[in-house]
Amino acid sequence: MTIFTVKVKPNSKQQSIEEQPDGSLTVHLKSPPVEGKANQELIVLLAKKFKVPKSAIGIKSGFFSRNKLVEIAIEPATYTNSEK
């Protein structure tokens, strides 16, 4: 399990994921922060990036905030090796 600090920016024109120097992620989402739509889009986007099923991703804190802790069912070594 790997935990990421994620800063979400809803209502963006394009979807994107930016890795910050401190290891956190900034995610730009098209969806508005209404009725969990942005959270659903976040999970789909992270699942594609890390090549895991949506069920392997969970929002641990910050469900109603732009700053979230997201847990992904991957090993840290797998993530760093696949990104090099």
Indicate the mean pLDDT.
90
Count of helical regions = 2
- What's the quaternary structure here? single chain
Q: Could you describe the largest sheet, including whether it forms a barrel?
A: 5 strands, mixed
- Range of strand content: 25-35%
- Helix amount: 25-40%
- Which blocks of ≥5 consecutive residues have pLDDT under 50? none
Largest beta sheet: what is the strand line-up? 2-3-1-5-4
Coarse shape: globular
Number of strands: 5
Measure the end-to-end span: 19 Å
SS class: alpha+beta
* Helix-strand string: EEEHEEH
- Please tell me how large the radius of gyration is: 12 Å
List the helices and strands and how they pair.
Elements: E1 2-9, E2 16-19, E3 25-28, H1 37-50, E4 57-61, E5 67-72, H2 76-83
Parallel strand pairs: 1-3
Antiparallel strand pairs: 1-5, 2-3, 4-5
